[in-house]
Design a protein that fits this description.
The protein is of the alpha/beta class and 385 residues long. The protein folds into two domains: 8-30 and 281-383, Aspartate Aminotransferase, domain 1, CATH 3.90.1150.10; 52-276, Type I PLP-dependent aspartate aminotransferase-like (Major domain) (Aspartate Aminotransferase, domain 2, 3-Layer(aba) Sandwich). 43% of the residues lie in helices and 15% in strands. It contains twelve helices and 13 strands. A seven-stranded mixed beta sheet has the order 2-8-7-6-5-3-4, with helices on both faces. Strands 9-10-13-12 form a four-stranded antiparallel beta sheet. α7 links the parallel β5 (158-164) and β6. α3 runs parallel beside α9 (265-276) and α4 (92-104) packs across α5 (119-128). The longest helix is centred in the last third of the chain and has 24 residues, at 280-303. The radius of gyration is 21 Å and the shape is globular. The two termini are 29 Å apart.
Length: 385
């Protein structure tokens, strides 16, 4: 019996497992910041281990953290929420997105999803019994989600619209005019919006991030996700949040209580320090990402690869269709031959077999080395055609 080919999230885990066997591997696919968690956040966690480890957290999170989150989304995103009833702290963005989907969708409901998109949304939809309705985006338009295509995808079963901006894996940012039109579509068709703002602090050039919940008529129909992992280099701390209207957030809280209860008290105290303490580390990371982004784009230009211009986030989604190979096969060869891990586009969307996702979450010397190795691998691939 032939072995079933790994797909989606399983394909990523398979590649990551192989990557761990190489001592000299350079990881250019995984979305984990390479910076240390800022020292004042670690210090707050150490204090919590001593002084708060036995404290109880309600399912929605500590009030002090919810207040800090409400202050943050007002300051950064212009979203007004009541920390008592409209904020829930979660075990990272992963739990947050599952809770949002479960709170909004019933079996058979459709969610409109611009593609490509973060693969776990497909997993959460399947778990909820929902139906994904894909809206295609294209490299020549920098993977812009066209509101006209979203409108055309609506049916009598449509219940929600997913808006991830900046996007993962395509790194596109929904422009303010397009975001306003997306909200108009949601209002006129009575759709809920699931908004993922996790990369909102990392936007480049003259592009602008706009949260749909900040617009008139947006808050009452929008659940907005964010997390500490990217902005504060806290991936392993498993700490995120959802904000939204009180009626929907009551459902989110019920689900959170049933599924996992309160989030780690130690991580929550660290989160309070992250939001209320100095923000210079965030600015430092953003500056580093701008420099690294330019390095990657220059290298891809030299290789003749097409890509959607990364307008935000930490990724580049590059077209490798000229190889004539499936992206899983290309990623496997780059990893096996040059010990560089890039993510196949097919792991994010079954129709994106001609793309690789690369990140710029490595020190510049490793990034340069990884790009040089990738150039060798791509040369070998083309020589074998």
């Amino acid at each position: 019996m032939s072995k079933k080919k790994a797909e989606g999230t399983n394909l990523l885990y398979q590649l990551m497992s192989e990557a761990r066997t190489y001592d000299d591997v350079i990881v250019m696919g995984r979305g984990d910041p390479d910076f240390d968690t800022p020292a004042h956040i670690v210090a707050a966690a150490k204090d919590a281990m001593v002084n708060h480890h036995a404290d109880y957290s309600p399912p929605e999170g500590l009030l002090a953290l919810r207040e800090a989150i409400a202050d943050r989304v007002k300051r950064v995103n212009n979203i007004d929420v009541d920390p008592a009833t409209e904020v829930v702290v979660t075990n990272g963005g992963q739990e947050a997105l599952f809770l949002m989907v479960l709170a909004v969708l019933s079996p058979g409901d459709e969610m409109i999803v611009p593609e490509p998109n973060y693969n776990t949304y497909a997993d959460s939809l399947a778990f909820a019994g929902g139906v994904k309705v894909e809206v295609e985006t294209y490299v020549q338009n920098d993977f812009r989600a066209d509101p006209a295509d979203v409108r055309a995808a609506i049916s009598d079963k449509s219940r929600a619209l997913l808006l991830v901006s900046p996007n993962n894996p395509a790194a596109s940012v929904i422009s303010p005019p397009d975001m306003r039109e997306m909200l108009d579509i949601a209002i006129s068709n009575d759709l809920m919006i699931i908004a993922d703002d996790i990369y909102d602090l990392f936007v480049y050039d003259d592009f602008t991030h706009l949260s749909p919940a900040s617009l008139p008529g947006g808050l009452e129909r929008t659940l907005t996700l964010n997390a500490f992992s990217k902005a504060y280099s806290m991936t392993g701390w498993r700490l995120g949040w959802i904000v939204g209207p009180a009626d929907l957030m009551a459902r989110v809280r019920e689900l959170k209580a049933a599924i996992s209860g309160g989030t780690s008290i130690i991580s929550q105290h660290a989160g309070i320090a992250a939001l209320t303490g100095p923000q210079d580390a965030v600015e430092m990371m953003a500056d580093a990402y701008r420099r690294r982004r330019r390095l990657v784009l220059d290298a891809l230009d030299a290789m003749g690869m097409k890509y959607g211009l990364p307008q935000g986030g930490q990724f580049v989604f590059a077209d490798i269709g000229f190889t004539g190979m499936d992206s899983g096969e290309v990623a496997q060869r780059i990893l096996s031959e040059q010990h560089v891990l890039a993510y196949p586009g097919s792991a994010f969307s079954k129709d994106r077999k001609n793309y690789l996702r690369m990140t710029f979450l490595q020190p510049e010397d490793q990034l340069i080395e990884g790009l040089e190795r990738m150039k060798v691998a791509m040369h070998n691939i083309m020589a074998d055609r």
